[in-house]
Amino acid sequence: MPLRLQTTFIPQDQISSETKLWYAVLAQAITDASYLGVRKAYVDCKKKAIEWLKSNSKDFKMVCHYADLDSDYVKRKFDIAFTNNKFNITDIQQKIMNDRRTPSQIKYEKKGFKLKF
């Protein structure tokens, strides 16, 4: 079940474009935090999104304010979902993040080449 941020029902035609934009910023952060794949760049985005959503920083509060949402409510909902293992970094993702090789090095090593610098 996806994390829901909406606290009250407001008809779409009564929500400003700016509010929709900032809501989309929060939605993208939640999407990034829920990534289950193994691409290193996306796993890095996942880690940063989780840190940002858990931070309750001034930036986070500002985005929530512009999205017309209570930042405490959003943080509480995210913390509950995180506690229920909805956004954890998997063991495979952790292994990928600890691998210091670049994607190019990994690609060439799979083809039987070894890049040394």
List the helices and strands and how they pair.
Blueprint: H1 17-33, H2 40-55, H3 58-66, H4 71-83, H5 91-98, H6 103-110
Features:
0% strand, single chain, mainly alpha, 117 residues, 6 helices
Structure description:
The protein has helices at residues 17-33, 40-55, 58-66, 71-83, 91-98, 103-110. It starts with 16 loop residues before the first helix and ends in a 7-residue tail after the last helix. It has one domain. 61% of the residues lie in helices and 0% in strands. By secondary structure, it is mainly α. The chain is built from six helices and no strands. Helix 1 packs across helix 2 (40-55). The mean pLDDT is 84. It is elongated and about 60 Å long.
Shape: elongated
Helix content: 55-70%
Overall pLDDT, averaged? 84
Q: Using the CA coordinates, give the radius of gyration.
A: 18 Å
Number of helices: 6
Uncertain segments are none
Structural class per helix/strand content?
mainly alpha
Q: How many extended strands?
A: 0
Count of domains: 1
Strand content: under 5%
Span between N and C termini?
47 Å
What is the H/E string?
HHHHHH
The oligomerization state is single chain
Largest sheet: none
Question: Concise description?
Answer:
The chain has about 120 residues and is mostly helical. About 60% of the residues lie in helices and about 0% in strands.
